[in-house]
């Protein structure tokens, strides 16, 4: 038998002897799958404490996790794109949104790959979890409350169940009582399919200073608040999902290969340049990073 006919002759050939081995092996082979690591300096006990609260209440508020310069960079870069309001009452008739952030706003990366958020995602999801969508959201004064909703309800897997996605909303402006702070129903991540928010359900408003973040599970009922403050409320949000789910935004189309090659390894992996073993995410039978003009091998 010639070499072309027998893959076994190739020293890189892998013999898969069990189904578990099949599921656990990166069969696209060339690039091992990368995992995000807790950034140096994060106290695992503190992250675990926050994680336990997140699992108990469905949300947690992380105070002062982004500095003023990072907030200003986002404000400056976002401003030219904040030129239209929503197309429906969910997006908000008086709410401005910017989609396609990984291509448009490099300043968004610091929020999307925030080390503390990645540390939480590492605890919640399998390696190579994905960015499902990211937006800048500017709720203008006069905006009614957004309808309450859960973020992962479009995955047809009956609830109650574990969260299939997780979201951040970072306050770029202070979130106050009357400017549209995110509203959430604590504990609602445990509700079943037929349980919807009732007027008497206790709600929390994520009032917090600029640079803080509400992190919540994808099955928690929440929504943007009503803004009757006279000023707008600027935020940036990111949603992440398990590596085996379809993402909301198709980043392979909205982010160019040049941009995907230039961003950090964290962002690239979150955009889908990774493999969920054995080969989810492959392209032409190869690791998708092989399609990028990367400097490395
Ligand atoms: O703007 C917010 O506070 C939350 C927005 C939200 O939940 C959404 O647009 O899905």
From TrEMBL:
It comes from the Bacteria. Pfam families: PhyH (PF05721). GO terms for molecular function: 2-oxoglutarate-dependent dioxygenase activity; iron ion binding. This is Phytanoyl-CoA dioxygenase family protein. The lineage of its organism: Bacteria, Pseudomonadati, Pseudomonadota, Gammaproteobacteria, Cellvibrionales. Keywords: Dioxygenase, Iron, Metal-binding, Oxidoreductase. It comes from Pseudohalioglobus sediminis. The keyword S-adenosyl-L-methionine does not apply. The keyword Ribonucleoprotein does not apply.
């Amino acid at each position: 038998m010639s070499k072309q006919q027998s893959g076994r002759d190739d020293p890189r050939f892998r013999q898969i002897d069990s189904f578990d081995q099949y599921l656990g092996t990166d069969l696209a082979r060339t690039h091992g799958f990368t995992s995000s690591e807790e950034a140096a300096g994060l106290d695992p006990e503190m992250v675990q404490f926050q994680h336990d609260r997140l699992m108990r209440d469905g949300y947690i508020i992380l105070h002062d996790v982004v500095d003023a310069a990072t907030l200003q960079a986002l404000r400056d870069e976002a401003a030219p794109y904040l030129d239209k309001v929503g197309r429906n009452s969910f997006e908000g008739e008086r709410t401005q949104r910017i989609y396609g952030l990984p291509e448009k706003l490099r300043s968004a990366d610091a929020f999307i790959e925030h080390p503390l958020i990645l540390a939480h995602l590492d605890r919640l999801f399998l390696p190579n979890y994905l960015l499902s969508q990211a937006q800048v959201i500017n709720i203008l004064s006069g905006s009614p409350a957004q309808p309450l909703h859960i973020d992962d309800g479009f995955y047809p897997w009956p609830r109650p169940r574990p969260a299939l996605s997780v979201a951040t909303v970072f306050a770029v402006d202070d979130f106050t009582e009357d400017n549209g702070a995110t509203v959430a129903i604590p504990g609602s991540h445990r509700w079943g399919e037929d349980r919807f928010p009732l007027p008497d359900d206790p709600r929390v408003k994520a009032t917090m200073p600029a640079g803080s973040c509400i992190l919540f599970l994808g099955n928690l009922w929440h929504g943007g608040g009503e803004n009757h403050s006279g000023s707008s409320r600027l935020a940036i949000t990111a949603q992440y999902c398990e590596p085996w789910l379809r993402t909301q935004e198709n980043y392979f189309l909205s982010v160019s290969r040049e941009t995907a090659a230039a961003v950090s390894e964290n962002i690239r992996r979150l955009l889908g340049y990774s493999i969920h073993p054995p080969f989810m995410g492959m392209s032409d039978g190869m690791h998708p990073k092989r399609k990028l003009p990367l400097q490395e091998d």
